[in-house]
Design brief:
Length: 422
Amino acid sequence: MARHTLPTIRPARDGDGEAVLEAFGRVYGPLGGGQRTLQEWRWRYRDQPLGRRSMIAVAEDGRVLAHYGALAQRALVDGRWTVFLQAVDSFCDPRARGGLARGGLFARVGRAFERAFVGLPITAAPAANTASAANVAPAANLASVANPAPGPAVPDTDGTCPGGTGGADSQQSECGARGLERAPFIWGLPVLPAWRSGRGQLGYGQLRQLLLLVGEVEQLEACEGSAGDSATTVRELGPDELPPNACDILARRLLMTRRVGVLRDRAWLAWRYRQRPAVEYHLALAERGGELLGLAVARIIDTRAESQPWLLPAPFPGQLEAANPAGKCLVLCEWCVPAGEDARPVGRALLAWARERAQAAGARSIHIHLGERSAEFQALQAAGFKVRATGRTVAARSFLPRRDLVWFADHLEVSLGDTDLI
């Protein structure tokens, strides 16, 4: 009888990209997002500003059988700096032993990932020049919030583990956390099989349903008061122009008004919207008297050429197709606009820019996701946007004391740019 060797579960390293992509395409296929390039994969993981978080299961013959990855963002929770993770690109080859079933390979890789990268900090005192949940930044002090002393931006050099043995996932997974901050909150938009496994095996729960605000460009033109005031101007950056330093001040100022949020500063914006290969984004700055007051990021998507079913309305019962056919749309990835009546002209100016950008590209509609409890969620509906369901579930798990998913659902807002959808 042939001896069965358990897969080796370990952190991914630079040389694994091609094998992971081969497995990714084998599982999802070209129509399911399995057409990613090696350059895209390296950007997602190797080049992440806060370090690579990626766990794989490798068969004895070198084939990758499963993957569990995440994108990291600096976050602030009630005045304390930490890191949040968004789980992405998770899969398991259905032919692998156990698959997505209870105690199967996918659950084992997920648990190894959590042991390495998720949970409260292992030590209460962080290393010098490292930010974690133990670093306190008083919410009333902008200077403190403006200097989070971010953690190391360089991941493991090779991901290997001294003394590790094939199949010993508990021993090998610990090596993935070397030099990286543990994240006390992880969330994602899982496909249905991964959602079932994550809920049953990894303790994930439902945070909310992902909703969109959708505005038809022609109808938005007719809305009164949609233009900004004459003192607020919008400047679109060139394709190769990096976000200015003022984005750091704006990002921290926006966090000052919230109990929890992620930091969309200059470094993160540059990585997300300037360094990503083969995808074009449009960055617009709203300024008044030389001061940066808000920003927006947009991407034009043609749903006839790119599979993005979550952007399309679901057909009514009995219909074969939705009422609105596929076509070009403008997706607002980021909407960094302050709250309050005094800042309302900033939102109107950026909305006018988005409408003009959509018209220039031949897009028929504008799509955006905002927290349902935010003032902008109501303001954009007044400007002509309508709420639309996407059918996608936002799943999450919190390790923070006294901050369960109900608390996060009440206070945390994410953008489409925080996800890997666009």
